[in-house]
């Protein structure tokens, strides 16, 4: 039996992924290999037709095939072909302009939700506790912009980023120091 279809799977970077190649006969042994002959990815192991990759790194991306070995035979039969694409969920860091330690009431402030991972991203901002954003505050792409910041703007603001690999959230807190 020769298989000509290829199954394509997106696998998430840093997670455990498994590929199962199961044959109905107990006498037939199956194993996974890369179609280009290179080594299986780091962190991988296989047992009884189950290829486990943990954690999944970029080196897991590529073309694989499961082959069956019949007892008393030197021939190998390709059972299934698979292509893995490693995708990365979003990660968030913040950039603040100007730095928070220098912000005074009345200043123009922008918080950037820096997102890394696989594109495209969907980025949104909201205030903690389901509060709506203050009316004068605007969202401009990845930026949360305060045209003039005031004590009423204190609170926690949440950036949410999503892509086909997952979601991430990060909270920025605006807090003015009391004068001593």
Describe the structure.
The protein is mainly β and 180 residues long. It folds into 2 domains: 7-87, Immunoglobulins (Immunoglobulin-like, Sandwich); 91-174, Sandwich (Immunoglobulin-like). The protein has no helices and 14 strands. The chain has strands at 6-12, 17-20, 29-34, 44-47, 50-53, 62-69, 76-87, 91-97, 109-116, 122-127, 138-140, 143-146, 155-163, 166-174. Strands 1-7-6-3 form a 4-stranded mixed β-sheet, with no helix packed on it. It is rod-shaped, with a radius of gyration of 25 Å. The model has no long low-confidence stretch (mean pLDDT 90).
Keyphrases for this structure?
180 residues; mainly beta; Immunoglobulin-like; four-stranded mixed β-sheet; four-stranded antiparallel β-sheet; 14 strands; rod-shaped; cell-cell adhesion mediator activity; immunoglobulin domain; Perlecan; Ig_sub2; Ig_sub
Please write out the topology.
Layout (H helix, E strand, L loop, with lengths): L5 E7 L4 E4 L8 E6 L9 E4 L2 E4 L8 E8 L6 E12 L3 E7 L11 E8 L5 E6 L10 E3 L2 E4 L8 E9 L2 E9 L6
Parallel strand pairs: 1-7
Antiparallel strand pairs: 2-5, 3-6, 4-5, 6-7, 8-9, 9-12, 10-13, 11-12, 13-14
């Amino acid at each position: 039996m020769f298989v000509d279809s290829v199954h394509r799977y997106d696998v998430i970077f840093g997670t455990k992924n498994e590929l199962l190649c199961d044959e109905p006969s107990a006498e037939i042994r199956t194993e996974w290999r890369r179609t280009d002959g290179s080594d299986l990815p780091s962190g991988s192991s296989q047992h009884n037709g189950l290829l486990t990759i943990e954690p999944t790194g970029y080196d897991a991306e590529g073309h694989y095939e499961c082959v069956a070995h019949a007892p008393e035979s030197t021939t190998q039969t390709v059972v299934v072909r698979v292509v893995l694409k490693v995708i990365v969920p979003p990660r968030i860091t913040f950039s603040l302009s100007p730095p928070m330690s220098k912000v005074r009431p009345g200043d123009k402030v922008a918080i950037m939700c820096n997102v890394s991972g696989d594109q495209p991203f969907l980025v949104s901002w909201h205030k903690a506790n389901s509060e709506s954003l203050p009316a004068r505050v605007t969202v401009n792409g990845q930026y949360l912009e305060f045209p003039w910041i005031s004590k009423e703007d204190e609170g926690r603001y949440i950036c949410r980023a999503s892509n086909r690999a997952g979601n991430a959230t990060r909270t920025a807190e605006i807090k003015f120091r009391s004068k001593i």
